[in-house]
Amino acid sequence: MAGVLVCVEQVGGKIAAITRELLGKGRALADALGGPLAAAVVGSEAGDLANQAVALGADTVYVVTDAALATYTTDGYVAAAKAIAAQAQPALVLAGASFQMRDFGAALAADLNAGLAADATDITVAGGQISAVRPSHGGNVINTLTFAAGRPAVVLARKQSFPEATEQAGRSGSIQNVAMPATSVRTKVVSVAPKSGAVNLADASVIVSGGRGLGNKDNYFKLIPPLAAALGAAYGASRAVVDDGWVPYEHQVGQTGKTVSPKLYVACGISGAIQHLAGMRTSRSIVAINKDPDAPIFRVATYGLVGDVNEVLPLLTEQLKARLGR
Amino acid sequence: MHIVVCMKQVPRDNSVKLNADLSINADGIEKIINLFDEYAVEEGIAWNEKHGGKLTVLSMGNADWTEQIRRALAMGATDSLLLSDPAFTNTDTLGAARAVAAAIRKLGDVDLVITGRNSTDDESGAFAPALARHLGWPQITYVGKIQDVDPAAKSITAERNLETVVETVQSPLPAVVSVIKDINSPRYPSLLKIKRVAKIEPPVWSAADLGLSAADLAPAAALSARVPAPARPSGEMITGADAAAKVTALVNKLLENQVI
Ligand SMILES: Cc1cc2nc3c(=O)[nH]c(=O)nc-3n(C[C@H](O)[C@H](O)[C@H](O)COP(=O)(O)OP(=O)(O)OC[C@H]3O[C@@H](n4cnc5c(N)ncnc54)[C@H](O)[C@@H]3O)c2cc1C
Ligand SMILES: Nc1ncnc2c1ncn2[C@@H]1O[C@H](COP(=O)(O)O)[C@@H](O)[C@H]1O
């Protein structure tokens, strides 16, 4: 076992941001482990992904293509990844922590008899030993897991934890096709329907969230989406307003909703209950707007503004529009 | 049919303390059914009411973790099972899944296992996939709706609620399904039912009952450090004569510090 294997995710034929992060971090970890950086490309077709992975730092790209891999199934993708792992023999397998990759990564870890760290925010190598840092207990506890030697480690990383690798033109690497092993794919994907108006909060680099302090649903929509548009942001919500039916569950940030880590999180009329903080406290910068100077949200805010959302948000939207030109 | 719901007892809130040996000290904090598992219990009960047979609520945990098992029985579970052994204490999610898989194999006649999306204490979300692989069964995770469970055709159709798409998946039974919060509205057990189950003691199976050795349960990733989440560096309050002045000051800061 040596080196690192990054499981490649793609968006419209391009390597996804999370994979760029993992190739960047993976390069450093592979060097620390004294092994190669490999990438795994799995799907019905590979397109240009293998070349892109090489340009982003992979030494070897293993490719499994098969018609059975046109849509994600646990059976199909885990079988392909195991065939690749059998050749690459990685000490560490890296993937993102999206829902699909958690379905995949935990199954792969079980099959490889590997150790697993889900939703990791950091990964280190010291003296050949691999460790991963992951929050638990609603973000209140930060755990370091150290993997047993002699067994592979699987780490699923939270988005926006590492800087993205940059492309190096002219970099060369080896691309190897691996045969899809005979696999019985037991589940059948009957349909895949995009969610209407769905936002992938985990992908957004700026999020504007509204809470009960907005007063009612109409006011939420009058104030939050325009501010989000001015910042090029996605919009989220506290559980209180999701439970009251203002916005669908997909928008909920927090322990029982989505965990996000954007560059900027703007909390409007949100008190900052620990379950909400669990979902956003690792954001790089936090702006909090609340009329109560003692609201707990101010304890995590980078910039706190005491004021009435009805007065502050329209002014803020206007100024941002004028000064950012969106 | 026989449905098993995996249910974990967790602290109501996460203001936990750390013991010197790095274990979590949740003394004095009320224990509840893991939020997502309440939805799993409700979903299990609904399909049990439709198809009959058994609904076993299965929990791995301390010997005194019986209160929430009784709550699930009061909601409508027909059977219960507690996996408890000091040997389970230090295992990780993958080890827990291995132990629960052994228990389900021992039960023998299980058609469907329902779990929550994740626990609100460990939050790994790895249990359902790991359990499915240990059992050699298919899995459908992040389910927001079970369209149909057909015991005769031995099949299940469910909607997976992912970040930006809804995937409808059909799977043969037996299978493992994990559910999210939106799937149903968990019922409140009646006082009469709570009274009726108040004295039930679930059967308890140990590692030896499951044929598991210390090596089977040894975590492949050991906790080497654990600290309370560091406080965020203290921020600053934006001041100004009125809302407009504060907003200008805020936008200036955001631009100066290249936040936007
Ligand atoms: C098991 C469990 C899981 C949970 N999971 C989540 C989760 O995932 N996400 C989540 O968000 N919550 C979660 N919660 C709920 C959480 O505890 C809080 O109840 C919730 O976050 C409160 O939402 P809020 O801040 O919008 O509302 P409130 O707590 O009602 O706060 C409203 C805030 O708005 C301010 N305000 C009012 N009017 C104005 C105004 N005109 N201008 C400016 N400010 C104003 C008030 O000062 C107050 O601080 C969970 C709870 C439990 C028990
Ligand atoms: N100790 C346990 N006993 C029973 N079920 C569990 C246990 N741990 C986890 N589970 C189940 O697995 C789900 C996911 O948990 P986790 O992988 O810890 O996030 C939970 O919602 C439970 O349904």
Automatic annotation (TrEMBL), chain A:
GO molecular function terms listed in the Swiss-Prot or TrEMBL record: electron transfer activity; flavin adenine dinucleotide binding
Record keyword Magnesium present: no
PROSITE patterns hit by this protein: ETF_ALPHA (PS00696)
Electron transfer flavoprotein alpha/beta-subunit N-terminal domain ranges (all copies): 4-193
Keyword vocabulary terms for this entry: Electron transport, FAD, Flavoprotein, Transport
Alphabetical list of SMART domains matching this protein: ETF
Name of this chain's protein: Electron transfer flavoprotein alpha subunit
